[in-house]
Amino acid sequence: MTCEISITLTPDEENDDAKINAEIKKALVQQKVEISGQKITPVFIKKSIDARHSQIKLLMRYKVYIGEEPEDDFSPSLNWKHAESKHKVIIVGSGPAGLYAAFRLFEEGIKPIIIERGNPTKLRAKNIKELETEGFLDEDSNFCFGSGGAGTFSDGKLYTRSNKRGDIYKIYKIFVEFGAPPNILTDAHPHIGTDKLPEIIDAMEKKIVELGGEIHFNTLCTDLITEKKYSLKAVGVKTKNLETGKEEEIFADAIILATGHSAEDIYKMLAKIEPSALEAKTFAVGVRVEHPRNIIDDIQFHGQQMPQAAEYRLTAQIEGRGVYSFCMCPGGYVVPCATKKDQIVVNGMSSSGRNSKWSNAAIVTERRPEDIPQSFVDEATANGCPALAGLYWRTWLENLTFNNANGQFAPAQRLTDFLNETDSKTLPETSYRPGVVSSRLDKWLPKDIKNRLQAAFKEFNHNMKGFICDEALLIASETRTSTPVRILRDKQTLECTKIKSLYPCGEGSGYSGGIGSSAMDGEKVASAVINSLKK
Fold it and tell me: Which residues contact 202 (CB under 8 A, 6 or more apart)?
């Protein structure tokens, strides 16, 4: 027989086999499981950390085999076929949604053709280095665009609470297949790291080509090719090679849109084709807050030494809107994520070791469609698609941030000065490159956003004493937590409600948030495409 049990250990006991076995037997007895004279084989499943109290605890979960041998491998099998089917599917975007959609198609031998505006990882790394050291932004290959999507160079966290979207264990298993550390299968908050993800993405893309797929880098999707007999249907895409300028038309049986939430040109393209395919949705904007790592570690671990950097998750309700931490990066860095030269956008990332001198998180406030100023609604309506009002407002805020910056030097203010509404005469050391410039965020951020952030920081400090301190730095603006636009799709077929054979998926289409949930959504949509092709 088998059963699952959880035990609690101190950090010092994590590698003490005798203690672990004793606790497992104790837990089995408490559950009244008969173990007398039988062989007990525990298989480790998951670990999480409980740091809510002065004594840190490790919560360890095991699947225990009693009187029988463990299964050799209870993980999902990965059965990919060479693309020999008569069908082919275009995937616009090579982020996790696009890549995992491709691998799902290979399970049926269907050929994916991936269109990616950015560079492969090695060239993309050079583009990012130029941005960080010289302030030069390539608008098509940067932290947001390029091989592997935004997460490749600006995050690496896999944790998702959206497990109902699909098989998250399979998502992790595929990452491990291509070189991710096996501990992502068992950690409660799995993380790969931006130092390792590029090589993993390279291995994935190599496999896609080996299996008969295509990947077109430096290739921009400029338009959909549609036809209308009984209803509007997408039959292909128009593309432009950004190096040679060559334009091409590519036809396929279906098109999966996996473009990420920064590809505003895709929303505008769809708005021209069929504006009713889009709807406005709630999103969130705010700032990055960066602390010296030791401050956050001391708060969360109550002064105790731990081998890993501390995490936190904060939420508040202020004036009818949620304010919360997002994409918390322990032992991480703040990075520039603009996609236009007249914007400043910040995000966070961590390497696999999570061992920098800083820890940071986005602190953002909910922004609903009714919160968008009327002038942006009027502009969007005049351009034929009211659903784009939030996108226009987001662009305005990113431009406003740039106007209060110095080139790609981001505007920043000490947290204490932000709350006291005063100048920061000096700024603490920061991980952000190219660098920061002192700015009165409290003056130029939209008033409702400023007020909610100020109130939330004070509330957060009640939960994490010492969170408000002179060393804490606010860096503006964090605007890309999610898209302000959703591409509508049928709940059953997952096909765009207004354009047949077009399948929106991932963050950019408004159906996921983060690497794990985007990958699951990519698989889910690819399965829907497969079902439609079998009819």
Answer: 120, 121, 122, 147
* Alpha-carbon gap, residue 254 to 261, rounded angstroms: 21
The mean pLDDT value of the chain amounts to 93
Query: Rounded to an integer, what distance in angstroms lies between the CA atom of residue 172 and that of residue 177?
Result: 9
pLDDT of the residue at 523 = 97
Evaluate whether 373 touches 397 at the Cβ level (below 8 Å): no
* Confidence bin at 163 (pLDDT 50/70/90): low
> In this structure, are residues 90 and 253 in contact, taking their beta carbons and an 8 Å threshold?
no
The predicted pLDDT at position 314 comes to 97
d(CA 470, CA 368): 32
- Its pTM stands at 0.88
Average pLDDT for 266-281: 97
435: left (phi over 0), alpha (psi -120 to 50) or beta: left
DSSP state of 390: H
What is the C-alpha to C-alpha distance for residues 110 and 102, in angstroms, rounded to an integer? 9
Would you say 388 and 278 are in contact if contact means Cβ atoms under 8 Å apart? yes
User: Shortest CA distance to 145 belongs to which of 239, 221, 236?
Assistant: 221
Compute and round to an integer the Cα radius of gyration of the chain.
24
Rounded Cα–Cα distance for residues 335 and 411 (Å): 13
Structure-block tokens of residue 366: 């909910």
> Which phi and psi angles does 114 have, rounded to 5°?
-95, 130
